[in-house]
Amino acid sequence: MTTAISSHDWSNLIQTDRVHGSLYTDEQVFQQELEKIWYRTWVYVGHVSEVPNANDFVLKSIGPQSVIMTRDRDGQINLLLNRCPHRGNQVCLEHRGNRGSFTCPYHGWTFANNGSLRGFPFAAGYEGADRSQLGMSKVARVGIYQGFVFGSMAEEGSSLEEHLGAARAALDALVMTSPEGEVEITAGFLQHKAKSNWKFLVENETDGYHPQFVHASIFDVASSGIGDLYSADSTAVARDMGDGHTEIDLRPEFRRIGKPMGWFGTTEERVPEYVAKMRAAYGEEKANQIMIDGTPHIMIFPNLFIAEIQIFVIQAVAVDETVQHVTALQFKGAPDLNRRLRQQTMGSVGPAGFLLADDSEMYERTQRGVNTRSPEWNYLGRGLARERRDADGFLIGDATDEVTTRGIWAHYRSLMEAQ
Amino acid sequence: MSEAITPELALVNEISQFLFREARLQDTHEYDAWEALWTSDGVYWVPANGDDIDPETQMSIIYDNRSRISLRIKQFHTGKRHTQEPRSRLGRVLSNVEIIETSGDEIRVAANAMVFESNLRAETVWCTRNEYLLRREAVGLRMARKKVLLVNNDKALYTLSFLI
Question: pLDDT of A320-359, one tens digit each?
């Protein structure tokens, strides 16, 4: 990008119906995003079911930062920055495991799994040192909602509940897809890299305009109803839920069809065990509603995408590199459904996925495309003339409208303008 | 000379030729001919996060049964599989062909492959250790199972949309 904008004029770079291409390519913009978004707001890190037992840990991330998610002996979830406070070595190299303490391989300093310093070898050399100041750094705030663990590196700020806002209802609905009311993340993650800026991924997750084109190949050969959900005739709704969160609300379509398990492309006869458990747990009427409505398609800003049957965790690594961590949603008490969720997820996502390999191709081509000098701007005006408010006051549009993308950018701008 | 070709040597040669043919069909995107190398119960498996995960409970990069192999091929044929339009340019070297076990009609084979891919993004080298279960059918050798162990399968990977 050649336009010289020295001190970023966010109100110029981000306008109602267009955004400047440099926002995806400028290294300085990326560095500011790290400080103002990734290391400040609530970022999704992991799920409590990934560390079910005391002393379990799993290696996670917040943007480029390596974070150890631990469950300590008291059952509390901790998010530790993976750096030894002594000489900066990486403390934890295992992807997951169970241990009450971590010992730095460099000089043998040992830390409890809540980060506090337990001891160092040849302690006489540290006479007078304040051990309480020599623990591992922790992500300042940890928040958990319906088992989803978020971290904020800012000491102060809005609560997780405030940050999630309207997205809370989607997470509440999601867990009720389980007859026991719990989601589990137990199938391991595929890690799919793309040579692209992270915001192209965030935008795409609730872009209802692209599926008919990007995914035409699989819609042509697999019997899937997904394509119809994003047709011009679809009654599904694109919604800006505020706070940067956006969704494609497919419930109007599923309710119109009115068949339990239709959202999952199956029928109740195919998963009888699950359907019986759901009706026993919630009663016939409520269970039917849950099984007709299906699971959300929601992008929780900045990095958690719940895509009906799977979750994506978006990790910004560099201005032009992003990793998508993706796994099947698993619903506690629903083994017959879970097997199908894993099979469908494996087919559709990850480096060889029927869907995501093509999405990622577009992310990379778009990244190269916006380096082209002109017209400098990406145009986001689709559906602007037919935006409307729903009963809750949220801006909505047709399923293929860019009301979602505009919502993401409005929130992004507010974060980048904040001091 | 013919006395010098033992049955073992003949088998190694037959299997090597079969695997080289599979490699060439992958490199040149001859999808239907490649699909014809599978048995009717073929399984094409590329694990993630290690070599010995349970594919029935853990996510794999590819875990295709025979009908999903067929779907993968059909998707290529639409001409709209964007990540393979244009096709990756590929060249692979297959080596270390080793017969692990012969049992009735079935032969377990190991081999290593280095694959060089050139596509719109960049040039990428993929290194794999492959395990095959071959079965002798009326038409000749066929693949009943192919397990591809990417050396870097525990890390984040770029799109892998060609036949590995």
Answer: 999 999 999 999 999 999 999 999 999 999 999 999 999 9
CB contact under 8 A, B71 and A345: no
Of B61, B63, B71, Cβ closest to residue A351: B61
- Measure in Å the smallest separation between the Cα of A158 and chain B Cα atoms: 33
Q: What is the DSSP letter of B28?
A: T
Q: How many residues does chain A have?
A: 419
Please enumerate in sequence order all residues whose Cβ is within 8 A of that of A202, keeping only pairs 6 or more positions apart, or say none: A299, A301, A302, A303, A305, A314, A408
Q: What is the domain partition of chain B in residue ranges?
A: 2-150
Q: What is the DSSP letter of B157?
A: B
Q: Which residue of A has its CA nearest to B73?
A: A221
The whole-angstrom distance between B26's CA and the closest CA on chain A is 15
DSSP string, B138-154: TTEEEEEEEEEEETTTT
For residue A399, give its domain range: 167-417
> What is the interface pTM, i.e. ipTM, of the complex?
0.96
Candidate from A95, A189, A221 with C-beta closest to B74: A221
**If contacts are CB pairs under 8 Å, which of residues 1-60 in chain B contact chain A?**
46, 48-49, 53, 56-60
- What's the CATH number for B2-150? 3.10.450.50
pLDDT digits (tens, 9 = 90+) for A255-310: 999 999 999 999 999 999 999 999 999 999 999 999 999 999 999 999 999 999 99
For position A244, which CATH number holds?
A: 3.90.380.10
Which of A322, A358, A363 is most worth mutating to test chain B (most B CB atoms within 10 A of its CB)? A358
Report pLDDT digits (tens) over A373-403: 999 999 999 999 999 999 999 999 999 999 9
- The stretches in chain B having pLDDT less than 70 are 1-3
d(CA A329, CA A186): 8
Instruction: Provide the pLDDT confidence category of residue A152 given band limits of 50, 70 and 90.
Output: very high
Residues 6+ apart with CB under 8 A from A119: A109, A110
Number of domains in chain A: 2
Q: Given an 8 Å threshold on Cβ–Cβ distance, is A195 in contact with B72?
A: no
